[in-house]
Amino acid sequence: MFDQVNAQIQKSLQPLTELAAVNAKTIEQLAEKQSSLISSLISDGASFSNQITQQQDVGSMINAQKTFWEGVQKKLMDTGKESYELIANAQEKASNVFKESMQAATQTTEKDPEEK
């Protein structure tokens, strides 16, 4: 009897376990993306600082600054798009887990009382 109750509890908690795994993986991936972005921006900023001090005229300084900010904008946009895709995929997985658990619950409740 105890084994049956334990099995039922584990089965009922399976969707929560799956959701927790999806969330943990998504958070880990987002953290990696953000960490990579920050490291890249710091590196690019240091490189830009070195480059801008070597410029001799205002025109070349403006061009260097323009190139730097275009690079920053591209990196921010790319990271934003990738982060959005990660979150959208996690949402889809969570939705599938929820649908599957609701279908399983519906099937369990539709069984004849004698089969339970």
Account of the protein in words:
The structure is a single chain. The chain is rod-shaped. The two termini are 13 Å apart. The model has no long low-confidence stretch (mean pLDDT 89). By secondary structure, the chain is an all-alpha fold. The protein has 2 helices and no strands.
- The tally of helices reads 2
Rounded radius of gyration (Å): 26 Å
Low-confidence stretches: none
Helix content: over 70%
Proportion of residues in extended strands: under 5%
Cα shape: rod-shaped
Order of helices and strands: HH
Class of secondary structure makeup: mainly alpha
N- to C-terminal distance = 13 Å
* Mean pLDDT rating: 89
What about the largest sheet? none
What is the tally of beta strands? 0
Spell out the key features of this protein.
2 helices, rod-shaped, mainly alpha, 116 residues, single chain
Overview in brief:
With 116 residues, the chain is mainly alpha-helical.
Secondary-structure topology with pairs:
Blueprint: H1 2-53, H2 58-110
